[in-house]
Design brief:
The chain is an alpha+beta fold and 187 residues long. It contains two helices and eleven strands; from the N terminus they run E-E-E-E-E-E-E-H-E-E-E-H-E. Helices cover 16% and strands 34% of the residues. The strands form two sheets. Strands 4, 5, 6, 7, 8, 9, 10 and 11 form an eight-stranded mixed sheet that branches. The two termini are 14 Å apart. Bound molecules: zinc ion. Zinc ion (ZN) binds at residues 4, 6-7, 9, 26, 28-29, 31.
């Protein structure tokens, strides 16, 4: 953040009184602009034994396969966001099942959440964010062309759980070193 969303003055990165970490603070209007992780919500959708994947038509990871997922919007629940993203990216009609995985992606400032879901019909109609949407048999999953670590982990858990006949809730954290200086105060 460079400018205050309230008054457009340049902000400074500083630790506010009674706080313990740097925040973007506006010297002109005194607003403190807190930044918090964003939720990415999506689905592991099946039609029979086959699993729904979308090939990304947008960066990052253009052309790679992914589970349908995207940023949660203000005013919706995590589950409603998962359904919406699945409709937008794959055009699939689905019924949400249980929460399936939750993965902290600390360096990306995101939390990725996936639900299991059941397709209500085989029809797909990929939206502008997908090059294609396709149902994959397990042996055809393009493991080397998947877009994100959270998608790989979730799909690995899913195929393993399905073989065992029991789906649990899976959690994980991906932690990379922050970029040098990114979180250090400028003044
Ligand atoms: Zn301001």
């Amino acid at each position: 953040m460079k400018f205050c969303p309230n008054c457009a003055s340049p902000v400074t990165l500083t630790v506010p009184p009674a706080d313990n970490r740097p925040r973007y603070v506006c010297p002109a209007c005194s607003a403190i602009h807190y930044q918090n992780p964003r939720i990415v919500t999506g689905t592991v959708c099946t039609w029979g034994e086959r699993i729904l994947l979308c090939r990304r038509a947008i960066e990052p990871r253009y052309g790679h396969w992914t589970l349908p997922a995207g940023f949660m919007e203000i005013g919706e629940t995590v589950g409603a966001g998962a359904i919406r993203e699945t409709i937008e990216e794959a055009g699939a009609r689905i019924e949400l099942q249980d929460l399936y995985s939750m993965i902290d992606v600390v360096h990306a400032e995101q939390v990725h959440v996936f639900y299991r879901a059941r397709m209500l019909g085989p029809e797909l109609d990929p939206g502008p964010e997908s090059l294609e949407a396709r149902l994959f048999d397990e042996q055809d999953i393009p493991w080397d062309e998947l877009a994100f670590k959270t998608v790989i982990s979730t799909l690995r858990w899913f195929v393993a759980d399905r073989r065992e006949g029991h789906f649990g809730l899976h959690t994980d954290s991906i932690v990379h070193q922050p970029k040098a200086g990114k979180l250090s105060p400028r003044s």
